[in-house]
Design brief:
- Its EC number is 1.-.-.-.
- It is a single chain.
- This protein has four helices and seven strands.
- The longest helix has 14 residues.
- The chain starts with a helix and ends with a strand.
Length: about 130
C-alpha cells in the first residue's frame, strides 16, 4: 500500500512503538516520503530504536510538533525497519529537502565537524 495521503502531507507524525510488554510509547517525529515508504531520522541510542529491535510493528497518526493527535485523526498500522548507513544518508537527504532546519543542521555539521551527532534512519512501510 502506498503512504496514506494524510500522512504524506503531514509535517509531523506521532510514531507509536511498543515495549516488550506491549505498552505503547508515542513520539512526535519529522518525516519525509521516499517512494512507497516514509523515512524518519533519530538518535541510534533512542528508546524507539531499542523498541524497534524487538518489534517492527508501529502505529502512526498525524500530529502537531508536540505529538498531540487530533481526536478525529486516523491511526495507521505500519512496519518500521532500521536502515543501514547508505540508505540512512539517502533518507537524511529526503528530510533535508523537506525541512529547512535539517539543512541548517547539516550545514553546521559540515562547517563544525565536532558538532556532528550520529543518526540512523527508519523506513516505515504500510501493509498491502
Amino acid at each position: 500500500m502506498s503512504i496514506p495521503p494524510d500522512v504524506a502531507a503531514a509535517r509531523h507524525i506521532s510514531l507509536t512503538t511498543y515495549r516488550k510488554n506491549g505498552a505503547p510509547v508515542a513520539t512526535p517525529v519529522w518525516l519525509a516520503p521516499d517512494g512507497e515508504r516514509l523515512v524518519v531520522w533519530t538518535d541510534p541510542a533512542s528508546g524507539k530504536v531499542k523498541r524497534l529491535r524487538h518489534t517492527a510493528h508501529v502505529t502512526l497518526s498525524v500530529s502537531d510538533s508536540r505529538g498531540r493527535v487530533p481526536h478525529d485523526a486516523p491511526r495507521h498500522q505500519a512496519t518500521a525497519q532500521l536502515l543501514g548507513v547508505t540508505e540512512s544518508r539517502a533518507a537524511r537527504r529526503a528530510l533535508a529537502r523537506r525541512y529547512l532546519l535539517v539543512r541548517l543542521t547539516d550545514l553546521a555539521t559540515r562547517l563544525l565537524p565536532r558538532t556532528a551527532r550520529p543518526g540512523i534512519a527508519l523506513a516505515i512501510t504500510f501493509p498491502s
